Structure formats: structure tokens, C-alpha cells
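Sequence, C-alpha cells quoted for completeness.
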Amino acid sequence: MSLSTPGKSISGAEITNVSVHGIWLLTRGRELFLPYEYFPWFLDRSLKEILRVEEPAPGHFYWPDLDIDLTLEIIEHPGRFPLISKQ
């Protein structure tokens, strides 16, 4: 009996929690917190819009319903990227 080579992983990024303080993103076994203080684009958005996240490339996250692109570096070090949208 031979085993076939595994295909492309279907487990991508997912939102695991949405709170009054921000959202939690799970990717590759890590959970990352995106506080609204640094990521205000998610505040007051629908749960459906927030939950639909894609990872088109490793470390690159895209919310198509919100047209938001973020990288792992931006999420981990938001202070290095001080420009925050004024809504």
C-alpha cells in the first residue's frame, strides 16, 4: 500500500475571536491579536466581513469584503507603521 503525496493545505488563516478590543487571527499555529487601536478598519464592521479572511501568500492576509491587506510584520509590529486611517 502506498500513500499519496499530500496536497495543498486547506487550513488557512481564520478569525478565532472578535471582542470589544480587537480581533484574533489564527495562522500557522499562531494566534495574533489585532487591537482596534492600531487596526481601526475592523471596528464597527460586520462579523461576516471580518470573518472572511484569506492568506494568498504566507504572511499576507486579505479581507476581500473590506479591501484590507496586512502583512505579518504589520500585525506583529504596528508601531513601525504609524499611519492609521482616520475614519
Q: What stands out?
A: Confidence is low (pLDDT under 50) at residues 1-10.
